[in-house]
Amino acid sequence: MLPSEFPIKQVRATYPALADGHAYLDGAAGTQVPTPVIDAIATAYRSGLGNVGGAFPASHRSDAIVGACRAAVADLVGGDARGVILGPNMTTLTYRLSKALAGPGDEVVVSRLDHDANVRPWTQTGATVRWAEVDPVTGELPVEQYADLVNERTRVVAVSAASNILGTRPDVAAIAEIAHAAGALMYVDGVHATPHGPVDMRALGADLYATSAYKWSGPHIGAVIADPALLETLRPDKLASSTDEVPERFETGTSPFADFDGVTAAVDHLAAMVPGTGSRRERLLTSMAAIEAYEQDLFAVLIEGLETMPHVTTYGKPARRTATAYFNVAGHTPRQVAERLAKLGVNVWHGHNYAWELTAALGIRDTGGAVRAGLVHYNDRSDVDRLLEGVARLG
């Protein structure tokens, strides 16, 4: 499907929030939710839910919801439903898993490209930390450096599949080849990558792949997907009374079952974005490829428009990137730019956006970071035009 054939009008009609007339270019921080997801969550609550493992129908409904949610997330990323860990968000799950994966005596490799949620949990394990550096001009994460960073003591290599501010898509598979050759595990932060194109965690070489449903039209739920055999070898902190089964041993407390139903609905929504046939996994690959092509076509207009304005500085020129722009406007702080655009009905984020190490490498963390405008599949040309018109006025 050509980008021009993407059914953007039909897609936008499924998102009630878009009716307020704002240009939602803040998707990199969290997307709006379509009607099927809202309906699924409401229906789950109306139907009656109980905690899992009980003898009564409301509990059985929760059991089914959890199983369906694991299967849906596995289909989205190409993983195994038996290895899908569900939780409140990627940060919480990464902290939980980092303690089970690394500690004193180990080494971990983290990168300056990553969101802090895939950096700080590893640096706080007590393991020796080695840093992969970013090219501050291109925004690329050179693969070659990993040959010097990874050794027989490396337990985990943590890396992002896409930068949440520059959109950089590093060669994760090549990094994984180096890591696996040394016997290390790959923990891949797919939070920003997953909404913007097809994902195959096995092709990436990810031993553990993290994602957040609220970045791809779902509720605020996080997930980490791994081979269940790997999870069997890990012993997280847990209550003595809670199950030791995998993946449940990594999930603490009572889960938000209705939200899990919303996650499944979000995956089904993505799978039906464009016409397709076959299994849900096959339909997802078709839909996500169409989403990627559409977003890249629209992003070309956005980034070219910004780069032609003399009063705008953009950051990063990676060879492969998501539809995410990070920029500053001369004479205005990032916050001032965001406030001016908000008055024009354009929603953008400003600041470091938790890319703590990367904004320091770019030399802008201590001066307020920059402005981030990110496209997702429900944005259209009018959103881009309004952003460019608003930024042009600031010149």
Secondary-structure map:
Blueprint: H1 8-13, E1 23-24, H2 35-47, H3 57-77, E2 84-87, H4 90-101, E3 107-111, H5 120-123, E4 128-132, H6 146-149, E5 154-160, H7 172-181, E6 185-189, H8 201-204, E7 208-212, E8 222-226, H9 228-232, H10 257-271, H11 280-307, E9 312-314, E10 324-329, H12 334-343, E11 346-347, E12 349-351, H13 356-361, E13 370-374, H14 381-393
Parallel strand pairs: 1-11, 3-4, 3-5, 5-6, 6-7
Antiparallel strand pairs: 2-8, 7-8, 9-10, 10-13, 12-13
Helix pairs in contact: 2-10, 3-10, 10-11, 11-14
Number of domains: 2
Indicate the overall shape.
globular
The CATH topology assignment of the largest domain is: Aspartate Aminotransferase, domain 2
Assembly status: single chain
Gyration radius, rounded: 21 Å
CATH class of the largest domain: Alpha Beta
Q: For this structure, what is the CATH homologous superfamily of the largest domain?
A: Type I PLP-dependent aspartate aminotransferase-like (Major domain)
Individual helix count: 14
What is the CATH architecture assignment of the largest domain? 3-Layer(aba) Sandwich
Helix content: 25-40%
What is the terminal-to-terminal distance?
Answer: 38 Å
Strand order of the largest sheet: 2-8-7-6-5-3-4
User: Segments where pLDDT lies below 50 for 5+ residues?
Assistant: none
> Strand fraction band?
5-15%
Give the SSE order as H and E letters.
HEHHEHEHEHEHEHEEHHHEEHEEHEH
Structural class: alpha/beta
- The whole-number mean of residue pLDDT values reads 98
Please provide the count of β strands: 13
Largest sheet: 7 strands, mixed
